[in-house]
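Hi there,

I know you've been waiting on this one. I reran it after we fixed the sequence typo, so this is the corrected version. Both the input and the resulting structure follow.
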Amino acid sequence: MIHTRVRFIISLYLSMLQTILSLTKEFISIQSTQDNTKALEKILELALSHLDGYAIERFERNGVRSALIYNVKRRPKKFKIILNGHLDVIPGKECQYIPEIKRNRLYGVGSMDMKANAACLIMAFKEVAHKVSYPLGLQLVTDEEIGGFGGTKYQIGKGVRSEFIIAGEPTNFDVVHKAKGILQVKISTKGRTAHGAYPWRGENAIWKMNTFFNVLEKKYPVPDHEMWATTVNVSKIETSNQMFNKIPDNCVAWLDVRFVSEETETIKKSVQQLLPKGFTFNVVAHEPALLTDENNEFIKLLKKITQHTTGKTIRLRGAHGSSDARHFARVNCSGIEFGPTGGGIGSDDEWIHIPSLGKYYQILKDFLLTVKS
């Protein structure tokens, strides 16, 4: 009798893993990049086709479509838990949209970030939604890779709130409870043009900008190894000058600043104070850091269940990149990033570890069923 039950449980597990794998393959085959509006709409509708019987609230902002699915008739003022997944991807090569299995890995664009993860979120939601007595939400968006402003952030602007949010980003089963904030700015300076053969007659705006770079690098040196510190990437330098023999009289630099949460209130002033006289400072984006207390009860429960399921010690760590979880941080909703095992994110060889999908699904299911109302 015991052996029969064990075989039944294993059969259910393998069946669910096959369902997740099948949906993931369908997701990968859809080129859901930001320049392909029809594909983004197609993949969202495919996801929603697996969620019949639940309340589905649709959102659209500036052509960006997203959805919120929940297990109650009306959207509550605050969910207990929201599972957050994105269906858009960083573009890859044409061949990468054909999912391929090699041994225990599934290769394809977005396999790790995060189409397989999203398939697990969908199936875990379906499994427990009618079994829990608290309001549970599933958030599916199509613009996370370009900032999530028309999806997650827009839904939050429409009043969506939760006690706890799990963004299903790839983390290799670590619990990411903090992530750096983003400050993107354009720094501008003016010079005085002249013929390139007579540099003393002009003032080269690019050389002026270089003086600022030297100060900036001293304040925020490029790390030679991974460390939890604020970093600055000079991502673009431009001038209107198109001639070799002309001194440029303008220069603009694009800076991508990734700041730790401790600098949330001071980062703009810290960079601005480095500017020489006459330079201008234009903020393009200022996105909050994510920081959820490691003693949060949801985190402790998730960590315990994950360690039991995987048999491994689970780390709480920070992420240098960001996710849509940061939008919830802006309205004081606690959140984390948590996902299965994979590799090659954004590369020509992106992959997800197939057995980890079954474990990820089981962890989510056990976690959601254990959370108290």
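Quick highlight: The CA atoms of residues 170 and 339 lie 4 Å apart.

Best,
R. S.
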